[in-house]
Amino acid sequence: MSATRLLRAAKPIGRSLVALNNTGRQRFATSALRRNPNTGSGESPKQASVWSYPGVMAVAATAGLFGWGMSEIRHGSLPKAMLFDSMHSYPRYASMREMEQALREIRQEVGGTEDIISTDPDDLHAHGYSEWSTSNPEGLPVAVAYPRSTEQVSTIARICHKYRVPIIPYSGGSSLEGNFSAPFGGISVDFAYMDKIVQFNKNDMDVVVQPSIGWQDLNEQLANVESGLFFPIDPGPSAKIGGMIGTNCSGTNAVKYGTMKDWVINLTVVLADGTVIKTRRRPRKSSAGYNLNGLFVGSEGTLGLVTEATLKLTVIPEEFSVAVVTFPSIRDAASAAAEVMQTGIPVAAMEIMDEVQMKVVNMGGATAPRVWKELPTLFFKFSGTKAGVKENIGLVQKITKANKGSNFEFAKDAREQKLLWSARKESLWSMLALRKEGEEVWSTDVAVPFSRLADIIEVSKKEMDDLGLFASILGHIGDGNFHESIIYNRRDKAEVNKVETCVKNMVKRALEMEGTCTGEHSIGWGKKESLLWEVGPDTLGVMRAIKAALDPNWIMNPGKIFDRQG
């Protein structure tokens, strides 16, 4: 039996047994677990299904099949499946009996009236598969845990470490590279109940939060108390702080405010064996010891589980505005953007969308009745004092005009700001809305020195056109980061191969230009090969050594960033 067939067989068996356990009981409100990408909202899940012996056996049966399959792969009885890249290099994970015992011990030690463990089939699927992700390896978690505190997370980790049960952190579920997939089964730790502001220090301009609070929710709560402060990192609307830390995300504001790493003061982290550490104290600066913040930010849950974060806040600017301008070509737009940066004009955001993406927005109709010119377009945000914003708009207008820009529009009030920025805000959702039956959107990113952005975009666009792919480009042009979104038929193997070739070539071009394989999506499951191309085996060896020191059993989000052995 092949590895892929083995795991396909495991899923229906496990689901059937779990479904038997859940008969007659209220099931999870899984629609609430799948966060609405347009609003970022989602109610907390209902109380988990009551755990019983049949439920333990359902999980154990599935885990046993996974464990047996991995053993067969390691010992050479089964061919290595493409989806299970280098699984032979991983340690032995929990057996059927050990998984059963681990789940029983977690439930016993946590205690209380609420069961924090779920084995609902839909719940497992929501925590192992993502329609947003370009990579969805076979396999699902065998249970989902919903801790309420750092102490409960520590208990889960300690017991999983004891029995070698994989742990996969989950917060917003909006990642794009298979970051929360569960190729080895294990327990998904969903922080849905840990979504609070723990402490707000207005005078110090910082805030302590739990991992499942969304950045939009955080800013809304800060606005409700009229703090005059906000958190400036703005990735996708459904993103949560835990995932933002794990991927070192950024967003449209990065050209002014930087990335997630720049806004983290300290972290509370649960290590693989259940040990709880705090990376540092609360001053804005410190030279004391290793920079552990830098170690955990961007580690994608492979080194520990973040249960609290102290974040910097900044003052809400006095004035905002937005401007939009079109160009005859991507190169003209990129030249204008480069001149804006080189002149030192302090824009708050500078985004680019190609003519295909502008057409997609019109086709999607989300910004109707506004119809956009289907040309390469730059979008600018300005913030600061009223006089400063006015001056910067004028300077940008002169630069864009000198680089063949036309149709320059700037917002005169908040309503116009929202209207002019709407095309950028609706870009991804407009692309998703065009999917037909059987189609998916492959969205991925690279980053290069911004002087090379026009070069890589032009070559990448030509390749996509030559391959006959329907694809659009948008990017954070101020920091050299751009995204390809490609619609393809997942049932057409030839088309899938074209997309994979196109993406790999884009990554290789970025690396040839001294860029990176990902500016903000991170590595996850999908870009492990790209990371090796980028940093080489020796640097990857250092990363593996750090991982092995903190997680010797290799249970923390295994299979992400790199494999255990090259």
What topology, given as strand order, has the largest sheet? 15-12-14-13-17-18-16
**Averaged pLDDT:** 84
Class by helix and strand content?
A: alpha+beta
Percent strand: 15-25%
The total count of strands amounts to: 18
- Percent helix range: 25-40%
Mind telling me the C-alpha Rg? 24 Å
Shape: globular
> Number of helix segments?
18
Described by strand count, sense and barrel closure, the largest sheet is: 7 strands, antiparallel
Question: Concise description?
Answer:
The protein is α+β, with helices and mostly antiparallel strands. The chain is built from 18 helices and 18 strands.
Describe it for me?
- By secondary structure, this protein is of the alpha+beta class.
- It is built from 18 helices and 18 strands.
- It has helices spanning 3-22, 30-33, 53-74, 96-110, 121-126, 150-163, 215-224, 241-247, 254-257, 292-296, 330-343, 355-364, 386-402, 414-425, 427-433, 453-466, 493-512, 528-550, and strands at 117-118, 143-145, 167-170, 187-190, 197-201, 206-209, 229-230, 264-270, 276-278, 305-312, 314-315, 319-326, 349-353, 377-384, 406-410, 439-447, 470-476, 481-489.
- Strand 5 (197-201) and strand 6 (206-209) form a beta hairpin.
- It is globular and about 70 Å long.
- The relative contact order is 0.11.
- It catalyses: (R)-lactate + 2 Fe(III)-[cytochrome c] = 2 Fe(II)-[cytochrome c] + pyruvate + 2 H(+).
